[in-house]
Amino acid sequence: GVLDLGCGTGRHLVALRDEFGAEAVGVDLQGQMVDYGRRRHGVDLRCGDLRSVRLGRRFDLVTCLGNSLSYLRTDEDLRAAAETLRVHVADQGLVVISTLTTPRIESVKQTVRVETDFVAANVEVMSAWDAVRRLQVTHRTWRHDDGTTDVDVLRRRVISVDELDGLLHEAGFDEVRWVGTGLAVAT
């Protein structure tokens, strides 16, 4: 089976299920994302915290994608998440993590188009690096097609490759391999 921690609406989980034909379970902290994903994708999504959830079973593949780890700000939270990964991966199983490992130092402003089932907007994005807190701070202004505007701020921790490698080894993973700069595979 496949477990996706921080699954959001389960989009990645559906792709993994369809590709490998495996039982798929997802966990996310945000109930509205879980509810939407259940309705839309018909997969087993559950509300829970990736730092503490315990499902009482192990999976051949455990994923933590979409920068879910970057929303954990403390070392204790990251250690707890690494432990959750470890207790859910089967012997000979794999853990795949995608997270921010390199900060964007320069401030960059860009506009992107977002169109989904529930939003259509041009989004102005401005990111800045907070070196003291090791946070990538992203301000977004959503200019919706209906004329309304929303603003939000993302504060995501950048976890260095060495830091994440150490956390995974500390949690009991024997081998950690890196693919590029933000994708780790642990066994």
TrEMBL record:
PANTHER family (alphabetical): TRANS-ACONITATE 2-METHYLTRANSFERASE-RELATED (PTHR43861)
Alphabetically ordered keywords of this record: Methyltransferase, Transferase
Organism, as annotated: Kribbella albertanoniae
InterPro entries: Methyltransf_25, SAM-dependent_MTases_sf
UniProt xrefs under CDD domains: AdoMet_MTases (cd02440)
Top-rank lineage group of the source organism: Bacteria
GO biological process assignments: methylation
Pfam family, one: Methyltransf_25
Domain (Methyltransferase) ranges: 2-89
Protein name: Class I SAM-dependent methyltransferase
GO molecular function terms listed in the Swiss-Prot or TrEMBL record: methyltransferase activity
